[in-house]
Automatic annotation (TrEMBL):
PANTHER family: HISTIDINE KINASE 1, TWO-COMPONENT HISTIDINE KINASE. Pfam families: HATPase_c, HisKA, PAS_7. Its EC number is 2.7.13.3. Residues 553-768 form the Histidine kinase domain. It is an enzyme of class 2 (transferase). Coiled coil: none annotated. This is histidine kinase. Keywords: Kinase, Phosphoprotein, Transferase, Two-component regulatory system. One of its GO terms (molecular function) is phosphorelay sensor kinase activity. It catalyses: ATP + protein L-histidine = ADP + protein N-phospho-L-histidine.
Amino acid sequence: MLALVLAVGLAAFFTGWRWRRQAAEQHGVTGRLELLMAGSPAVPMVVRADGRLEMPTRLAQWLGLDGPVDDLAELVADDGALEPGDAAALRDAVVAGQKAARPFRLPIRALGAKRALFAVGERAPDGLNAPGGVLVWFFDASEMQEEIAQLVGETQELRDAFDSLTGLIEAAPLPMWYRGADLRLAMVNSAYVRAVDADKAADVVRQQIELVEDSGLGGPLANAAIARDTDEPQVSAMPATIGGARRMLRIHDVPLPDGGVAGVAVDIEDLEQARGGLKRFGEAQRAMLDRLSAGVAQFGADRALRFCNQPFQRMFSMRPEWIADRPEFDRVLERMREAKRLPEVRDFPSWKAEHREWFQAAGAEIEESWHLPGGVHLRVVGQPLPEGGLLLIFEDRTEQVQLASARDTLLRVRTATFDNLFEALGVFAADGRLQLWNNKFRLIWDFEEEMLATHPRVDALAEAGAPKLKNPDRGKLIGALVRSATVDRQQRGGRVEFADGRHFEFTAVPLPDGNALFTMLDITDSRMMEQALRDRNEALEAADRVKTAFVANMSYELRTPLTSIKGFAEMLHGGYAGELTESGTGYTEAILESVGRLGSLIDDVLDLTEGEEKPLPVERVDLELTAGAAAGAVANMVNERGVELVVDVQGSAGSVKGDQRRLREAVEHLLRHSVNSLSEGGRVLLHVDGDEEKARIIVSDDGPGMDSRTAERAFDQFAQVGIMPDGQRALGLDLPLAKRFVEAHGGTIGLVSEPGEGALITIELPRG
């Protein structure tokens, strides 16, 4: 039993000793943990399921409390230790952690404290003996918060800069891209996408669509690889097809620190074309300068001759091989002097130094006149160039000087001519002012020389000269004519009578320079002659009317005895006075024939003397029947003279409106005229045709014809009748009568004839 008690006691002793040693070890661990907690940057807080808190004094100090609090409600109260927003966020996070074991991270700021805390919460471990509770670690993030704020600001600045750079690259009109270290496309801008006719940048990157096609020499990747490997930017010119057009691009490959390569494409097609155009312009300009008559020489900033055209070489006798050495300005002047193409000067070195200063005469007007030996005149114009050179232009004005001298002579001759002309002359400017005048102009209007010297306007001259006219209102016509010539550029004229009986004819003529020439010609004598001729014409017309009336009366008077002669002759021929002998019968037949011819002649004279105002009867006239009747009327005459008459009436002849008898007589007169002009065996053609508007009658023969003078007088009713000295038949009344009848119907008649070629007479009659 004792042994049992001893054994139990020893076991209890060893167990207590072990527990004591474990407690001592645990106490040491706890102390070390407390030391670690005191130096830890984080302070724990346990929130039990019922809201009770376990917090160290250090956390209470961080939160600005006098000491630890026991309840969560007290900590997150509105007047508690935390900012209202942070308190509500912590309360909600703790509740979510208690109910759903949801971890949380919250920034916490104590009320009125500058310290910034960061709370990290999770469900409390089982070892804390706080079932349903939440363990919250608080970190002092004051310094970290400042660094974070600084980093956030820097990050925002970098982000803004990156966004701006990205927006700039995206908005750039130039294709831009980025390649990674493997030289594959990683980013392109919108200009690149448009240039390769793609829809989106992602498609370009995915399909690796290159802007420049591979030309067999490494393509667009060759320079990019060189830039990446050498860390040196590379520039190259490559062709590309953009928008269906071939363009030349300047590719810039720039290495980046990350091993990638940035690329930019600049379209230099226009620049290349501009360079080519500039080169062609320079060549064309030099070719044009070679065709100028003026000499052109260009010196560089070093005063060496860079260019001179062919006229310059000819003007100063300079050989091309000498010019090829690009001589200096001084040598060129000396060469000009040797060729005697410089003015004679007393001090040539000073003169040369003075002209050497033209290179520095920026903005100054340089112009000289050189009078060279032999009467040559040169106009020299100098222009300093912006790059320091000098451009000289040599214009040979010898001809202009000679022309100016000749012009002065011509002006003096013109003035002398003006003053001695029979006409009065005045030249008015476009504004109506008198510019030039001669003595005749001044004397006609009796103007004072002092008044004309003021170059008055035409209205003032017309007003001053109006009292000298018979009708003063006619003075306004002068101003109107001058304005018509200067403004409307129309030539007009008129006549004016002076109060003293003089008559003048005036004309306003537009001149090529915009001025107007006003001329006045004295027509007093011609006016008097015109009046005398007018009076004589009236007298002749009165005499002609008397003669016509006399002929008409005589014709009527002759009809009475002619009728009696015809009646008695017919009675004798009919045997009323007894049977006549054979010779008596012949005599009576001759009397009757002569009476018939005389009666026809009297009828013709009466037709000519009848008034033109006498109206004609209007009826439908068939031209085929009319032509047949006219041909039948001259049938006996045709047979007696042994000629041939051919009548050709076309179906288009139709009819016209008029006097059937007069039209038949018109055709009959033309046939008689043609038959009378023919000898035996001759031929006459009567042709009739027409169209919708008019009918045409043609009478032609193969007779002797007539000369131009006779043809001009063919239709003159007073033409000579009889036989001409050269044997040709003279004109009778047939053609004048035919013309009278045709014109009475509104038609026309024409004659075409040449000696030995017969005659052709054409009548055209309107259908209406």
